[in-house]
Design a protein that fits this description.
This protein has a single domain, classed as endopeptidase domain like (from Nostoc punctiforme) (endopeptidase fold (from Nostoc punctiforme), Alpha-Beta Complex), CATH 3.90.1720.10. Helix content is about 35%, strand content about 25%. A five-stranded antiparallel beta sheet has the order 4-3-2-1-5. Helix 3 crosses helix 4. The protein is globular and about 40 Å long. The relative contact order is 0.21.
C-alpha cells in the first residue's frame, strides 16, 4: 500500500473518531475480516483481542484507537442492529465493557470481538463474521 493511501485512510479514520460517541460499536475493516470495539470516549476502545496476534491468549483490553489504527484498515461507526434492537443506555454499555476488562477467552463462533461489542451494546451477543 502506498503512503498516500495510508495517509488518506488515517485522515478518514480520524474524521470517524471525531463523530463517535461513547457506546458506539467501531468496526475496523481489515481485508476479509473485521475487528470490533466499543468506543468509551477520549479516543479509547474496549475490545477482545491479543496484541501479539495469538487469539488463544485473547482477552478484553482497553486501547487507544490510534494504536489499533496502526494495523491499517477502514474505520466505521457501525451500530448495525440499532434498527432491530434498542441499544442499552450509554452508561450501561460502557459499564459492561469496563467490567469485562481482563476477561480471557476467544471463540471464533461464540466469543469473538463482534460478540463482545453486541453483548455490550444490546445485551445479546451475535456475530455475522
Amino acid at each position: 500500500m502506498n503512503s498516500k493511501i495510508k495517509i488518506e485512510t488515517f485522515e478518514k479514520n480520524l474524521e470517524v473518531i471525531s463523530k463517535a460517541q461513547a457506546g458506539d460499536m467501531l468496526k475496523f475493516q481489515r481485508g476479509l475480516h473485521s475487528h470490533w470495539g466499543i468506543y468509551t470516549g477520549n479516543g479509547e476502545i474496549i475490545h477482545r483481542w491479543d496484541p501479539n496476534g495469538d487469539m488463544s491468549n485473547a482477552q478484553v483490553w482497553k486501547s487507544k484507537i490510534n494504536d489499533i489504527m496502526a494495523y491499517d484498515g477502514d474505520l466505521q461507526i457501525h451500530n448495525f442492529l440499532d434498527d432491530k434492537k434498542k441499544p442499552l443506555p450509554i452508561s450501561v454499555i460502557v459499564e459492561k465493557a469496563e467490567n469485562a476488562l481482563g476477561t480471557k477467552g476467544y471463540g471464533l463462533l461464540d466469543k469473538n470481538c463482534e460478540h463482545f461489542v453486541t453483548e455490550c451494546r444490546y445485551g445479546q451477543a451475535t456475530s455475522r463474521q
